[in-house]
Amino acid sequence: MKYPVLEMDRVPHGFKSSELSYVVSFDFDDVNNFASDDLHKKYVSYIQREVHGLVENMHVMYRPEVVKINGQYFVLLKDNMDMYKITETIKKILGEIDRYTEGKVEVKAHVLMAMLLQKGKDVSFFKTKKVGDPILESAEYMNSVISEKKDFDPSELSYVTPWEEFVMLDEKRNQEAKEK
């Protein structure tokens, strides 16, 4: 079986080049439907970074690492992860984003196994036959979509920063910037 390849300048500590790892990524589509002004654009940009950090912080047992390659964030997870827990977390995050963006931003998550490669290093001899296409061009990436959303329950603790809270934080930052 061939695995999609995630090529990077430096493989994070705890991972090795030519190693197989689970990869989580979020794709944000139709951002312009919601991001009509600068504040909405800042919010979408903020949650694009935040969701990868949420997966990283909520699943510390799987020794996660967030990497940014060509403007796209990926969360690398060790192979001892529980797929059910990861997908449930992702569904809850997708439901919250849908609620906070009023359903105007389409978000898809991808969870798949990929081969990590460090630029300039040769592929391990035993894994040369497992090297597939670059991850964003691979069929596995296209078929690994999680788009199912878990309905948002206001009584539960929110993972994603709500729009109203972001507006308050932004006003506070602007106020502090004016005072300096």
Describe the structure.
There is one protein chain. With 180 residues, this protein is of the alpha/beta class. It has helices spanning 31-34, 38-58, 83-100, 139-143, 163-179; strands at residues 3-8, 19-29, 65-69, 72-77, 106-118, 131-134, 145-146. It has one domain (3-179). 36% of the residues lie in helices and 26% in strands. Strand 3 and strand 4 (72-77) form a beta hairpin. Helix 2 (38-58) packs antiparallel against helix 3.
Percentage of residues in DSSP E strands: 25-35%
Number of helical segments with 4 or more residues:
5
Report low-confidence residues grouped into runs of 5 or more: none
Largest sheet: 7 strands, mixed
Supply the number of structural domains.
1
Percent range for helical residues?
25-40%
Query: How much is the radius of gyration in Å?
Result: 18 Å
What is the overall pLDDT average? 88
Shape: globular
